[in-house]
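Attaching the record inline, Q. Sequence:
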Amino acid sequence: MTQSRRESWVSISVRRLRAAKRWSRRELAERSGVSANTIANIEHGFAMPAVDTLEGVLHELGCELKIEEKLL
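Structure, as predicted:
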């Protein structure tokens, strides 16, 4: 069974931010407390992380996840 790849703003952003810091996936994983496999799956669009996981990864990359409610 193959996984479906679905690149998103999350996968693109995490990959670009990590590359800008010149960190390996393993380094980001260790800093954020998740596995290197999880980082790879996020970056390749195979997984959409839980909000708390994404917050931790982005925090280590110097970013903040902000969720806003927009009324239509």
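The mean pLDDT is 92. The two ends are 40 Å apart (CA to CA).

More tomorrow.
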